[in-house]
Structure formats: structure tokens, C-alpha cells
Known about the structure:
By secondary structure, the chain is mostly helical. The chain is built from five helices and two strands, in the order αααββαα. It has helices at 11-24, 37-44, 48-60, 78-105, 109-121, and strands spanning 64-67, 71-74. It has a two-stranded antiparallel sheet. Helix 1 (11-24) packs across helix 3 and helix 2 crosses helix 3 (48-60). The chain is elongated.
Amino acid sequence: MTITFDDNLPIFQQVAHIIEDDILNGTFQVDEQILSVAQFSQLFQINPATVVKGIGLLVNEEILYKKRGLGMFVAADAKEKIHMKRRERFTKELLSGLLNEADKLGLTTGDIIDMITQLRKD
């Protein structure tokens, strides 16, 4: 599996996002063990310290938890925490940027809704 990392975001954050995506899409279930640092490192062809840092982010956010001597596991409310975090980021970063650009273009709320509706049909 080859992963192409985005140069605009630190790799450890991208690792955390990939793990979050795997939780959201059901690859990793609640209380299920995720891949080891060595497995992620080999899979992504990156330094293990980078993987540790990405996993550490998710542990700090209580999305993952550690079982001493066994590895990292998905927390019971991981999906809800990821949804809340991403929804907040979606609102703050993407929607506010979209609305700022819409204002510059003189688009109304109705115009934006029409555009979204059209894109959703495709």
C-alpha cells in the first residue's frame, strides 16, 4: 500500500487522520487493536517515531487507549469524538472560507444551497 503524503500538513498529523478514517469506515472497531507502530511504519514507509507521534495525538484526544504490553485500542466513543472534532473543523475552516469567498462573489445563501444541491446530485 502506497500512501502519498501532503506536503502542507505534518506527516504525523496525516497518520492520525488515516487512523481516524479507518475508525470511521469500520476498519477498526471499538475495543479492537489497531496496527502496531512497526506495522504502520512499514506500511507507510515512514519513521516509527512519526507513527508514535500520530498515535500519541489520538491517545491525547482519548480516541485510542493503551493496554500495557498489548498495544493501542479504539476507545468506546472514538467515532463520536472524531465526528465532533471534524464537524467543528469543517465549520471553522471550510465553511467559513466558503462563505468568505461567497461574499466576495456576491453569492446569496440560496445560490450556495443551489450549488450544493447540484453537486450532491452528481
